[in-house]
Design a protein that fits this description.
By secondary structure, the chain is mostly beta strands. The chain has five domains: 146 residues, no CATH class; 173 residues, no CATH class; 69 residues, OB fold (Dihydrolipoamide Acetyltransferase, E2P); 73 residues, OB fold (Dihydrolipoamide Acetyltransferase, E2P) (Beta Barrel), CATH 2.40.50; 62 residues, OB fold (Dihydrolipoamide Acetyltransferase, E2P). The chain is built from seven helices and 38 strands. A seven-stranded mixed beta sheet has the order 10-9-8-13-14-11-12, with no helix packed on it. A seven-stranded mixed beta sheet has the order 17-16-15-20-21-18-19, with no helix packed on it. The chain has a five-stranded mixed β-barrel with strand order 3-4-5-7-6. A hairpin with a 5-residue loop joins strand 8 and strand 9. Helix 2 packs across helix 4 and helix 2 packs parallel to helix 7. The longest helix has 11 residues. It is elongated, with a radius of gyration of 37 Å.
Length: 633
């Protein structure tokens, strides 16, 4: 007896991976529009970043860096620089007690009152404040010395203003400013520089000794080599620092432009970086370590590009953010940033080494208030990813919670210990998806190659990095993750379920929600759907099933199209194989795929029979559609 039979090659259903949206800490625009290239650009930008200066028209407008600063304006800067803005706000409704109070603008009342009550600005010998008069360099430095507790008590003997001037310059209150003519009006740019200097000076105890950590910016100014950045952090001198929501940059337009440069960064009160300034080009080299060369009188570090840098026993190495130490051994492949001494000899190396080789993520638990992001790799090991970890996806900075299942990752942990804290995650999220059009093995090697045609029809050949026994056959619909080398590394989201189905029933509830029940290889399955199946009951066809939501979004009826006759010569139901003979040409076709779905065409419509429903002697038809059709004669 001849049977009408249809067989469809199963296609793999896959899960889509969405690309994350992320950005590094937002780079603020220029603080003021008239300071680019000015010697005070960094100082004035910092004053804007910490909220001390806003310019005539607000941030982004002019600040007139070379104009004199008035006494009222300076009162605002010094009080703000001491962090007493709240005090000034509380005194803003009090009319100042100076003889010329009627000349003091109301916006300045709080600042002037605060400066007076703090003993910083006490007016002239006639009791006047003179708010609109320029303040000169001598007066500025006098106020700055008074502003930091304990310093005024250490003044040398002498006449004002020289006693203040000599002391201020000796301690560093003047910062970068050379006070050659102390009676000249101080410019706005120079005052910004001196305020910044004052904010870094510690208070003194009764014995005149500095009290460590008492400066306004204590622990908030970080200088060194800018060596890395992520969506939320920058690395300076080997240490990571969180970024504020908005960051002002001077000397570069973005974080990439800061790489391998010496910078000064300033943090806000919470420790988040708000300002980064390039202070000088670093004398450094970056490259991948290859080997040590100790064969001659001078010892060298040798890098993959052939660069050789002399080193000696004083060399310190910070490996994977561990504390710098002498005697740390570099290994081939280490990513290195080498700081050079004045003599060109390597002084310090910031090195990164992958402690946990390439693997892929099978589970991600996002971070919350009580826990870090947790990722599980294919081998079953799981790792916490703290907020301080640097994370990249496809080479771009990302947030740790952007990591996703199927990402191929390489992990770096603190120091040389694979069990240490995760400090860096490099994730690759590239996929190859489409229909396999061919496979081959090349020698020497062997190298296993798979060619995949994408939806546009373009074909790409990939190296197969998995078990050769698992290579797909031609015609298979596949989706694979690529490793960093671009090889097929992991099959993504495969589900043992065919999209070729027989429609059994279709319903629409009172709210318009649609469901369809289909026969899939003899199993009845019910799906939510966006398709109107009312005209398709009993039809056999190709269902498009969303891999994430399991919703059928499309359905194509497959009409039986008679073509070349094939006779079944042999069938092995257990192995999922059959041998066919082309009755027209005599060619032999061997089908080896246990996932082939086989339906028998009956008077009531297609019915699933599987390999077990075939026997030698059955005659089938086949055509060359997107799936393999096997149709009984």
């Amino acid at each position: 007896m001849k049977k009408a039979v249809t067989a469809a090659l199963v296609l793999a259903l896959v899960l889509s991976l969405g690309a994350p949206a992320f950005a590094a800490g937002e780079v603020a625009g220029p603080a003021f529009n008239d300071i680019a290239g000015h010697e005070a650009e960094a100082d004035l930008t910092l004053m804007a970043a910490v909220g001390i200066m806003t310019g005539d028209e607000g941030i982004g407008g002019p600040v007139r860096p070379d104009d004199p600063i008035t006494r009222a304006e300076f009162a605002k800067m010094i009080v703000g620089g001491l962090g007493k803005g709240a005090t000034a706000a509380g005194l803003a409704g009090l009319v100042p007690t100076f003889a010329d109070a009627d000349e003091i603008p109301t916006w300045a009342w709080g600042w002037v009152n605060a400066a007076y009550f703090m003993g910083l600005m006490i007016g002239d010998d006639q009791g006047r404040f003179r708010p609109d008069d320029p303040i000169n360099y001598a007066e500025v430095l006098t106020v700055l010395v008074r502003a930091v507790r304990g310093h005024e008590q250490q003044l040398p003997q002498g006449m004002w203003p020289y006693n203040y001037l000599f002391y201020a310059v000796d301690v560093g209150f003047n910062g970068r400013v050379e006070v050659t003519f102390p009676r000249l009006p101080a410019t706005r740019g120079d005052v910004a520089a001196m305020i910044f200097a004052m904010m870094q000076i510690d208070r003194l105890d009764a014995d005149g000794q500095p009290i460590a950590g008492t400066a306004m910016l204590a622990g908030r100014v970080h200088e060194g080599l800018f060596s890395d950045y992520t969506a939320t952090q920058v690395t300076i001198d080997g240490a990571p620092y969180d970024l504020a929501e908005k960051v002002y940059l001077v000397g570069a337009s973005d974080y990439e432009g800061l790489m391998n440069l010496n910078v000064r960064a300033v943090a806000d009160a919470e420790g988040d970086i708000i300002f980064i300034h390039v202070i000088e080009a670093a004398d450094s080299y970056s490259g991948v370590f290859a080997e040590y060369d100790d064969s001659g009188d001078v010892d060298y570090l040798v890098f993959e590009d052939g660069t050789k840098i002399a080193y000696d026993a004083a060399l310190t190495v910070s490996l994977n953010r561990a504390d710098a130490a002498q005697g740390v051994t570099l290994e081939p492949g280490d990513e290195c940033l080498v700081s050079l001494g004045d003599d060109g000899v390597a002084a310090h190396v910031v090195a990164y080494r992958a402690n946990i080789g390439e693997d892929y993520i099978t589970d991600v638990v996002p971070s919350d208030d009580d826990s870090d992001t947790n990722i599980t790799l294919s081998g079953g090991a799981d790792y916490d990813v703290p907020a301080s970890a640097m994370v990249t996806v496809n080479g771009q900075a990302a947030d740790r919670d952007d990591l996703a299942v199927w990402d191929v990752v390489t992990l770096y942990t603190m120091g040389a210990d694979p069990a240490g804290e995760v400090i860096r995650v490099e994730a690759t999220r590239e996929v190859a998806e489409g229909v396999v059009t061919g496979t081959k093995t090349t020698y020497p090697g062997p190298h296993y190659l798979v060619t995949i045609a994408d939806a546009s029809g373009a074909s790409t050949t990939y190296e197969w990095a998995m078990d050769p026994a698992d290579m797909p056959g031609s015609g298979a619909q596949v989706k694979y993750g690529l490793n960093a080398a671009g090889a097929l590394f992991v099959e993504i989201g495969y589900e043992a379920m065919t999209p070729y189905v027989l429609v059994e029933s279709y319903t629409v509830d009172s709210e318009g929600n649609k469901t369809v029940t289909v026969d899939s290889r003899g199993q009845s399955l019910t799906y939510a759907t966006t398709v109107d199946f009312s005209a398709d009951i009993g039809e056999f066809g190709l269902a498009t099933i969303d891999g994430a939501t399991k919703v059928i979004t499309d359905f194509t009826v497959m009409a039986i199209d008679e073509a070349t006759d094939y006779e079944v010569l042999a069938v092995d139901a257990a192995a999922g194989t059959m041998t066919l003979e082309d009755l027209g040409t005599g060619d032999i076709l061997f089908i080896s795929d246990p996932e082939v779905t086989i339906y028998e065409a009956t008077d009531d419509g297609p019915a699933y029979v599987g390999f077990a429903g075939l026997e030698a002697g059955d005659v089938l038809n086949a055509d060359a559609t997107q799936m393999i059709w096997l149709v009984a004669d």
